[in-house]
Every structure is written in C-alpha cells, then in structure tokens.
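cache lookup: miss for this entity combination. No prior model stored, computing from scratch. Input as submitted by user K.M.:
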Amino acid sequence: MKASHLILPLVSVLPALYPASALAVDEAEDIATTIKLRGYDCPGRKVQSLTQTERADGGKQVDATCSNGKRYRITVDADGRLRVTPR
Amino acid sequence: MNRGQTPRAWLLIAMLLAALPASGKNCEDPYCTPTKGHHPTQTTPKVDLDQLITRLKQTSAIGFFTKIALRADVMQLQEKITAKRAPLPELRHQFDGLVLKILALLDDDPALARDIYRAREAIWLSLLPPSDKLDPPQPPRSNT
C-alpha cells in the first residue's frame, strides 16, 4: 500500500478531530466589523484604508474608508467608550 | 477491488466520520439540533462564566475594536435589564440577537463559539437581577 493511501484519509480526518485554532483578524477587518456592528454601511470584509492616531486623553481614533467610498471615524475614549461617526 | 478506488473509499469513510458528531448524540456543532427527547434544562452543564469572559477577551478571532463594541452592547443590555426598560421576553430576544452576533464573529474560534452557545442560559441568568432569578417565568399549565 502506498504511503499516500494512508496520508490522504488522515489529512481529511484531522480537521474534524482538531478544530482550527482562532485565526487573528487584521485591523482592516476589525474596523469594518465594528462599523457594521454599529449599523453603518460598509461592504466587504475589510476597509480600504485606515489611519490610526492616539488621542491626547489616552484614547484611540481611527479614520477609515470603506470599499464604497464612505468614510467613518471610530473613536475610543479613555473610558473605553466606542463611537462610530460617518464623515 | 480496483486499487484506484481504495483512497476514494477511505476519503468517503473519513468524510462520514467527520460528519458523525453533527448527527449523533454528542452534538459538538453549536448549531446542531439536539436529538428527540432532549430538554435543555436537563443537561445544562455547569458553566465557568469568568473563564468564558477571559477566553472571549483573549481570542484573536475578534479584533480589539469589535470587542469594545460588543462590550458596549452587553453593558447596554445589562443596563436595560436592571432598569427593566422593556418586558423580559423582549430583552431576551435582544440577548439572543447579541449571542448570535458573537457566534457569527467567532467563526474562526469554533470551540469558543460552541461553549458560549452551550452557556447561553447561564449567561442570560447572570444578567438577570436576583429577584428575576428567584422567580423565573413558568411555562403555561394545562387544566387537564
């Protein structure tokens, strides 16, 4: 019996036995999901471009452009409150 | 038997094995339908909510900003429940929607999605104020 005859079924069974570990999402995907969670229109899995800046109060600010050209500002203040604002 | 068919047969067996948990009694898939006669309250496992929260915080399947947005949604729902701003069934409906959102986002961390789905009743109870926990809504009684 060829080795490939044993390996093929093993390879096909492995995913069922060991569920895939969590795959990290990148920032563009994270921002697109956040915009959608807040009910705004942002087609596709990822935003096209984003610029992240640190705010003086210790929070974060991200300016993102979706694939349909719509732009949003996502801010997280020092208390961890998140806001999505269309621009 | 044709030698060329052997790997295909193995592949078929492997695919069947992979599909078995979804149709058997050990329901590993978070969305699988339990077998007949199963009642959720009969087999509700003991849930470590703190551990689930830690896993949710640590999972890389959900990004930083999405986690913050979800946390805000949970806090908003908890506030509504505490202030009794809506009837309990309506709040439960919102809770179910929120759980679905989280499960959808955890597509890349199926183990955590499964555990959250299984723990949803315990999570819901943890959000309820003590008075509602002691007096849960009773199912309608038949007069026969």
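stored under new cache key. Residues 25-86 of chain A form one domain.
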